[in-house]
TrEMBL record:
Protein name: Sidoreflexin
Organism classification: Eukaryota, Sar, Alveolata, Ciliophora, Intramacronucleata
GO cellular component, one term: mitochondrial inner membrane
Molecular function per GO: monoatomic ion transmembrane transporter activity
Organism this protein belongs to: Paramecium octaurelia
InterPro entries assigned to the protein according to its UniProt record, in alphabetical order: Mtc
Family: Belongs to the sideroflexin family.
Length: 322
């Protein structure tokens, strides 16, 4: 474990996938839910002071300090420095999504089930996107309404459309069961695009990696990089959610699925929660939350800059969002 300092993003090595995987498992842990706003505020003050006041470090081990950091990072917006609404924090993503995953992947994909499940899922996804957005830009009510409507309608149309097509083609039953997945993938694209549209128009704030100082102006190129990296993650996240129906299908074929309705429901929800947790860890661990790029990857205004220390800026960092 690394020695704790405020300049370090994680106790793990974020340059490796396995380091990011361990890092995000700590971030999304549901155990981080059970902290009051007062505790979060206290942890934040301790972490801010640890580099300035050596006496504080003698009171806590590095393990304790990193634990505080993970609790803060999973509940507090990294730019706004305010608690995210409890339903849309990374620490509550798995428990909140278990019933949504059950509705999408386990219930029979009838039109009414898909309509209700896709609407509920995209409503949650939209709010999660908004609450964990890059805070450089302000969203108008019209833009929020437009993006929400586009996400929900694209999910429903994509899901019902693929279901109709597969039935017309006499596709295998398992493929028809996966129709909600296509709706989710289509909607994830629209959902993320609409949520990030102001970023494309105005750009996002970028920082010097050495001093963490904000650089002048906003970068549209950084916004594009953040969007596409996040989109890859959003395509991977729902995939494990559709493994439970396959497991359940073959369990029933092998006649080893529980007979009792309550036990069967408990098994379905447990499988949904387990694979959702695995998918979230694997998906968001692909890229670090704070991306580092060469100034030549961004607009010309960010090239040949020097920071407050008089050093040429060689690496620029920015929050890609979740």
């Amino acid at each position: 474990m690394k020695r704790y300092t405020n300049t370090e993003d994680s106790a793990e090595d974020l340059t490796t996938y396995w380091g990011r995987l361990k890092h995000f498992q700590n971030i999304i842990s549901p155990a981080n839910i059970f902290y009051s706003p007062e505790q979060l505020s206290e942890y934040g003050k301790i972490l801010e002071s640890v580099d300035k006041d050596p006496s504080i470090r003698t009171k806590y081990t590095d393990q304790q300090l990193w634990k505080m950091r993970y609790v803060v990072d999973s509940n507090i917006h990294p730019q706004l420095k305010e608690p995210v609404n409890i339903l849309f924090r990374t620490s509550t993503f798995v428990p909140v999504n278990v019933p949504l995953a059950f509705g999408l992947a386990v219930l029979p994909p009838t039109p009414i089930n898909q309509l209700l499940a896709q609407s509920a899922n995209q409503t949650y996804n939209f709010m999660f996107n908004y609450c964990n957005r890059n805070a450089s830009n302000v969203f108008s009510n019209e833009m929020l309404a437009f993006s929400y409507g586009g996400a929900v309608s694209s999910a429903v149309v994509g899901s019902l459309g693929t279901s109709w097509l597969f039935k017309k083609l006499n596709a295998p039953a398992l493929l028809i069961r996966a129709c909600p997945l296509f709706g989710v993938l289509i909607a994830n694209t629209f959902n993320l695009f609409f949520a990030r549209y102001p970023d494309f128009q105005k750009g996002i704030q970028v920082f010097d990696d050495e001093t963490q100082e904000p650089l002048p102006g906003l970068s549209k190129e950084a916004a594009k990089i953040a969007f596409f990296r996040t989109l890859v993650t959003r395509y991977i996240l729902p995939l494990p959610m559709f493994i439970p129906p396959i497991v359940i299908y073959y369990m029933k074929q092998a006649k080893c699925y529980p007979q009792g309705r309550a036990i069967g429901l408990a098994l379905d929800l447990s499988l949904s929660g387990f694979f959702l947790y695995c998918g979230l860890s694997v998906g968001i661990g692909i890229f670090p939350q704070y991306l580092k790029v060469n100034p030549t990857d961004l607009e010309s205004q960010y090239q040949n800059l020097t920071n407050s220390k008089g050093n040429k800026i060689k690496t620029i960092v920015f929050n890609k969002g979740l």
